[in-house]
Amino acid sequence: MSDDVTRARVAALVPAAGRGERLGPGAPKALRELAGTPMLVYAVKALASSPLVDVVVVAAPSEHIDDVRALLDRQEFSADVSVVAGGETRSESVARALIGLPDDVDVVLVHDAARPLVPVETVTAVASAVRGGHPAVVPVVPLVDTIRSFNEDDAIGPTVSRDRLRAVQTPQGFTRDVLQRAHAEVDAPVTDDAGMVESLGIPVHAVAGHEEAFKVTRPLDVILAESVIARRRVR
Ligand code: CTP
Ligand code: MG
Fold first, then answer.
1. Strand (E) or helix (H) holding 197
2. Is the CB of 19 under 6 A from ligand 1?
3. Which domains does the chain have, with CATH numbers?
4. Residue 233: count of CB within 10 angstroms of its CB
């Protein structure tokens, strides 16, 4: 492995093994179509199209691994793309994708398949911040709604000032050793990789995220994603 992170080879891991329960009945979320193309294809294309990304590893639903391989084999990507079986949780899926990364990869991005429309520029910004010396990087966006806390009895509590809050997106970027250590040592219930890394005492750096990197979670998000795709096509 090289010591020079400024020229590190970059891999992007894609946890894609979730079921998409909040989207309603149907295929696993990563395989559901947006304007006729599975969500996963958009996500892999965005990552592979970044000039900084060399390798993409998809953690697919284990019962669909052959379909996912066949699907991705039919596309043209400007990075090496491989597929492994995902796990029972997102973090297990990421851990499985980490196993078997090529030795010369020193920077690792982790990107949800459920954020198919992330702009390539956001991918590149995260990777270059890691290459620039930040061991952990997250893209963030401001909140739009007024936020209130609720107490344990579900009674309304005070409004929380929005000024100091940000929503965290993916791709999140890490030096490989930091992400591997987090997955080996941290067993806390955190929802993202940056949370795991932070519990090792590693500082997390924020860069600007993008509204089009939103997570497709509920049925309305599919309509929004298809509108973004339609707008991109006419440009
Ligand atoms: N994920 C994964 N392995 C799991 C669970 C989730 O790789 N066992 C991935 C999903 O495929 C998704 C990302 O983690 O790309 C974020 O998860 P989420 O948006 O919650 O997707 P799902 O778990 O599929 O959706 P739901 O929670 O509605 O079932
Ligand atoms: Mg989930």
1. helix 193-198
2. yes
3. 3-138+168-233 (3.90.550.10)
4. 8
| Residue closest to 221 by CA, chosen among 115, 111, 110 | 115
pTM score of the predicted model: 0.96
Question: Does residue 215 line the site of ligand 1, with CB under 6 A?
Answer: yes
DSSP type of residue 164:
G
Q: Of 13, 19, 215, which is best to mutate to test ligand 1, by the most ligand atoms within 8 angstroms of its C-beta?
A: 19
Kindly report, residue by residue over 137-167, the tens digit of the pLDDT: 999 999 999 999 999 999 999 999 988 999 9
Q: Compute the distance between CA of residue 210 and CA of residue 91 in angstroms, rounded to an integer.
A: 23
Question: How many whole angstroms from 173 Cα to the centroid of ligand 1?
Answer: 18
Q: Are 40 and 14 in contact (CB under 8 A)?
A: yes
